[in-house]
């Protein structure tokens, strides 16, 4: 199996000013591409060659896990945004967020706080268990809730390459601004 990098569902400059076209050029064009290229090289001739990406993430370790998970995480991240995004989730996800975090605003504050606190590189996730319970999960490096038996709903990338060109050291500002472009229709469909 050869994994191909999915085309973005928006133009490289469509998420400005929240994410600049320069950041998309590097982050999507170089970083995501490199993880997918590495993944394709690493699975060649291994027992993982014909596996689904999710299964590789659940079972692999070391460099293969890192690159498989980073490939998946970036695709998931970039497909969470839209130039018409923002606002609040509705439907069952909106309801579950209100029930479990008190309000959308307190969920957002907690999500930004957990993402800001990650030491070094990582991802802040919203995930759910089989019963529909939601979890905010700060995870280092290539971490992914699939390895914990949970279903990913939303993720923000907190590696410096995701925000440094646009926000320098202001990670919390970057995380807060991302909520202005979240495509809740897509994110709700994952719940
Ligand atoms: Mn990244």
Secondary structure elements and their pairing?
Blueprint: H1 21-43, H2 53-59, H3 62-78, H4 91-101, H5 104-117, E1 122-128, E2 134-140, E3 151-157, H6 164-167, H7 171-178, H8 184-190
Antiparallel strand pairs: 1-2, 1-3
Helix pairs in contact: 1-3, 2-3, 5-7
The structure holds manganese (II) ion.
Residues 27, 31, 74, 157, 159, 161-162 line the site of manganese (II) ion (MN).
How would you portray this structure in words?
The protein is mostly helical. The chain has 8 helices and 3 strands. Strands 2-1-3 form a 3-stranded antiparallel sheet, with helices on both faces. A hairpin with a 5-residue loop joins strand 1 and strand 2 (134-140). The structure holds manganese (II) ion (MN). Manganese (II) ion binds next to helix 1.
Distance between the termini: 28 Å
**Bound compounds, please?**
manganese (II) ion
Task: Give me the secondary-structure category.
Answer: mainly alpha
Give the number of DSSP strands: 3
Q: Mean pLDDT, as a whole number? A: 97
Radius of gyration, Cα only, in angstroms? Answer: 16 Å
Report the oligomer.
single chain
The succession of helices and strands, N to C, reads: HHHHHEEEHHH
The neighbouring-strand order within the major sheet is: 2-1-3
| Overall helicity | 40-55%
- Assign an overall shape: globular
Summarize the biggest pleated sheet.
Answer: 3 strands, antiparallel
Stretches where pLDDT is under 50 for at least 5 consecutive residues are: none
Q: How many helix segments? A: 8
Beta-strand content estimate: 5-15%
